[in-house]
Amino acid sequence: MNPITSLVTIVLAVIGALLFVLGLKIAGIIVGIFAVLVLFSLKMADNWERFVILRAGKLSSVKGPGLFMIIPVVDAIAAVIDERIQTTQFNAEQALTRDTVPVNVDAVIFWHVHDAQSAALNITDYRLAIDRVAQTSLREMIGSSHLTELLSDRKTADEVLRKEIAEKTAEWGISVNAVEIRDVAIPVGLQDAMSRQAQAEREKEARVILGSAEAAIAQKFVEAANTYGSNAAALHLRAMNIIYETTKERGATILMPTSMVDSMSVALPAAMLAQKEIGGVAGKS
Asked: Which of 39, 96, 180, 272 could bridge across to 9 with cysteines, CB 3.0–4.6 Å?
């Protein structure tokens, strides 16, 4: 009983009692009867509630929100429907995927009643029906999907599951807002195998990258060798730089080949250049 109906009933009952005490018995009885009628006929629905009213067993109307009146005895409230968004958790245990992998899947569905009349008259218990439909739809979706799809593309799986459940519950006046798969549990042995597979794939990618890097470095070495071979001064500067890099460490004894020391001589690149020029002149003659 809502507080407004209780208050009106109490006020009318008090007025009727006072009239009866004051000697106005007929008026007191009438007010008392009216109080009883208000008690059984005045109803109130909250903003999210809808009352489905049957009159003599037939659908009369859907009331709410606010205050409304029904005819006692003749009218009956068949159902009080909550139209707020509801959540239902469901799962599928040991369901086989398309590639015959047993998985345990937990999911949650967000739904609401958009047609109170259909929810009250077309299904006995729409809450229980949603739970059953969600479970069967989840198993059907798992059976038509590969394990990799469930693990890597959950958004697509969520949308497919939402559409399947929405199609089955539309005639009950229920709209499915969203479905979210919370967890996909696979056997421990398969987890180890997938971990090893992922590790092998990462190692393969690392080796490919390393090979590409070595090929690029080798190409740069070839380009540098061509530059040094055609430019004696560049080779001389490079030799000096190598000697400088090796002698930066203090307190260390470094042994260098005499050829490297000879490369420090300015006469060497000059001689190489002169020899190259002589060779060029001989070729022209």
From this structure: 39
